[in-house]
Design a protein that fits this description.
Elements (H helix, E strand, L loop, with lengths): L2 H18 L4 E12 L6 E13 L4 E10 L2 E11 L8 E24 L9 E19 L8 E2 L5 E21 L2 E12 L17 E11 L1
Antiparallel strand pairs: 1-2, 1-10, 2-3, 3-5, 4-5, 4-7, 5-6, 6-8, 8-9, 9-10
């Protein structure tokens, strides 16, 4: 995050806290199971996410999150077509095995639907809505070598990187586990809002499109 923007958030939070007597910020960490639902790219992976929540007023604030995780693996049966009629054979069938790793930076508005971030008894229910930047790295390997000068390959072999913007939503619940400690569970969905094509992705439209179910701990400061 740019330093001027970070300082602005701290000053805004401190000002609003002085007026509303709300807590300043929280730090959270969670682990969860990510499922990619994009057609032709179904896989599961383990994701770790770090959160910084700025509690602007009693029930509303800004959440900044960063996540990373294990590689998701999948395969596709694809067909390479000859570029000219003189090339034989006219098509080659092969299997592409892919390994996809993702990192994600997200900024969202967090709203407590029930409770508040410093509640000491009972549970809280909250939701978030915001935007994310996904940084992906995919590695492809083909089970059959094909000359790209003679054939149109639907997906390239090797390693490639890509970026995606996403619309991020979540719904979570938490309970206090001690003074200023909260255990939470959360369901998230990441909806692609851009699909700039990458030759290393078998399908680019609405990909990656996934959801996450996680459990974690939040510490209030």
């Amino acid at each position: 995050m740019p330093r001027p923007f970070f300082l602005f958030l701290l000053l805004l939070t401190a000002s609003l806290r002085a007026q509303a007597q709300s807590p300043l910020f929280s730090f959270g960490s969670d682990m969860g199971l990510y499922r990619n639902f994009a057609d032709g790219q179904h896989f599961n992976s383990i994701q770790h996410t770090l959160h910084l929540d700025f509690h602007l007023v009693q029930r509303d604030g800004i959440r900044v999150s960063f996540s990373h995780g294990s590689a998701g693996k999948f395969s596709n049966a694809v067909t390479a077509l000859a570029k000219t009629g003189s090339t034989q054979p006219q098509q080659i069938n092969y299997t592409n095995k892919a390994s996809l790793k993702m990192r994600r930076l997200s900024v969202a508005w967090k709203r407590y639907l029930l409770g508040r971030p410093d509640r000491e008894e009972g549970g809280n229910l909250y939701s978030t809505a915001g935007f994310g930047l996904l940084l992906g790295r995919i590695t492809n390997s083909h089970d059959r070598l094909t000359d790209s000068s003679l054939y149109q390959l639907p997906v390239l072999a090797g390693e490639g990187k890509f970026k995606r913007l996403s619309f991020d939503l979540s719904l979570g619940g938490e309970i206090p586990a001690g003074p200023d400690f909260y255990i939470f569970t959360e369901a998230r969905v990441f909806i692609p809002s851009s699909d700039y094509p990458s030759p290393y992705l078998y399908k680019n439209k609405n990909a990656p499109f996934g959801g996450l179910l996680c459990f974690g701990l939040r510490i209030l400061f």
